[in-house]
């Protein structure tokens, strides 16, 4: 098995990860002594709380689904479907479908709380696919995305197509969502730092991504994107 050249793929990775965000609306956070409500938190504070979880300094607390508004749920599902529709390489008929669904959680720090929907799905068509997202219930902000897939059958139909597929998905959705800038910088050990710009908002993500192919043919796609910090109006 060989690792495809990292630099060309990561050029398309910028387009890919740009495609994952939806238009976001944020309200300013309060600065009084009382704990802030979920909707009052700033973009930067939301990202800060999630980054504590990503660093294993916070744990999820289960949120009762009765506390989730149906409109919030529908918007998060729409976000997940858009991202999954853009990313998934598998065009074969679903042969095996494992349980899939949603979980609801809160993350709290210093009296501030964010509410998160976790979307998960595992299935097999031409590929064995895994897909997971963490989405802010109050804003639609994507905190985390994981997509991994391994070819199971009809591999010859997909050989050499992954980079083009992801690039086309990114180009279409970035235009639709109105992003105006971004940069992708190498960190180390296949890790990249991605910065996105939209209006007065800036998002910093850590990304680990790879496409692997050999002559069997066999293919693996693996992508993990995590919000590290953010700022905005």
How would you describe this structure to a colleague?
25% of the residues lie in helices and 39% in strands. It has helices spanning 6-18, 43-54, 70-87, 162-177, and strands spanning 2-3, 61-62, 96-97, 101-109, 112-124, 127-136, 142-151, 181-186, 191-198, 201-214, 218-231. A hairpin with a 3-residue loop joins β10 and β11. The radius of gyration is 18 Å and the shape is globular. The N and C termini lie far apart (46 Å).
Brief descriptors of the model:
11-stranded antiparallel beta sheet; disordered N terminus; 233 residues; 4 helices; alpha+beta
- Beta-strand percentage range: 35-45%
Instruction: Give the helix proportion (percent range).
Output: 25-40%
Structural class: alpha+beta
Query: What is the H/E string?
Result: EHHEHEEEEEHEEEE
Overall number of strands = 11
List segments where confidence is low: pLDDT < 50 over at least 5 consecutive residues: 1-35
Q: Name the overall outline.
A: globular
Major pleated sheet: 11 strands, antiparallel
Distance between the termini: 46 Å
What oligomeric state best describes the polypeptide chains here? Answer: single chain
Number of helices: 4
Using only C-alpha atoms, the radius of gyration works out to 18 Å
Write down the overall mean pLDDT. Answer: 79
